[in-house]
Write a structure and sequence with these properties.
- With 90 residues, the protein is α+β, with helices and mostly antiparallel strands.
- 31% of the residues lie in helices and 11% in strands.
- The protein is built from 3 helices and 3 strands.
- The chain has a 3-stranded antiparallel β-sheet with strand order 1-2-3, with no helix packed on it.
- A hairpin with a 4-residue loop joins β1 and β2.
- The termini are far apart.
Length: 90
């Protein structure tokens, strides 16, 4: 029989609290008003995709044409680690 719980000696890992620097509505509006002046159409579409869906830059950069279902208005996001899968609908 164990006299003491051995788990009591284990310290849990420190929690990391990273601050999220989300864009404010006025920042988004400034970006959108300046987009037509930007000459790179692919960059404009990329920025609009990220702003309108809330997906991360890496998720947007990893999209392929087969991830977009135009009939269902669906974009399938494949996670980098390959564990979870979710979709964003229009």
């Amino acid at each position: 029989m164990i006299d003491e719980n051995p788990c009591k000696r284990i310290k849990s890992p420190a929690k990391s609290h990273s601050d999220v620097n989300a864009l404010q509505l006025e920042d988004v509006q400034k970006i959108i008003t300046k987009l037509p002046k930007y000459h790179d159409q692919r960059a404009r579409m990329f920025i609009l995709l990220v702003l309108n869906t809330g997906i991360r830059e890496g998720e947007a950069a990893g999209l392929e044409w087969q991830d977009i279902d135009y009939d269902k208005h669906l974009i399938s996001i494949k996670p980098i680690i390959g564990i979870l899968s979710y979709a964003i609908t229009a």
